[in-house]
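Input.
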Amino acid sequence: MEPFIKLKGITAPLDRSNVDTDQIIPKQFLKKIERSGFGIHLFHDWRFSDADGKVAIPDFVLNREPYKRAVVLLSRENFGSGSSREHAPWALEDFGFRCIIAPSFADIFFNNCFKNGMLPVILPAAQVQELFDFEKSNPGMELEIDLPAQVVRRPDGKTYSFEVEPFRKECLLNGWDDIGLSLRHAARIDSFEKEYFTKYPYVQIPG
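Output.
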């Protein structure tokens, strides 16, 4: 997992509340187990007017420049509600997003973001509104997300502080997913396996 330290880039405004996981990645596209290849289907029913995703809806934000290259998504309350599918953060990340800013998130989606190297930032609704207003006056603005300092920085220098649980912060800064956390103890795991299989050779799997 790629470490998340500082992120600076175009911010796409998605002015919708209660964006659920079926809107993020519709169920008909959940046919793969790998994490890649879902970005093309992100927000499919809002981005495309056909079932195959070939006819773009021109006025949807992610179909317009410069938002096609956005790395930060700005949205409203209860983002990521619905099912527990991990494909939702996979689709967002595969499209190019690494940070989502909203007043609140659904719990499971919130947790899944951290497990996939994305930072969900919770800001008060009034501050989120400020960012929407500022973006409207400055289309294509670039926000800077500074995880060590725990601030969102606007181009004019104004900052917004956010909270993040220390362990999750450490994992993002170091690029540790669940497998990465386990591999930190690879030497101890190897040592245990050698000792265990020496003591109980009959439990070893052939090959």
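The mean pLDDT is 91.
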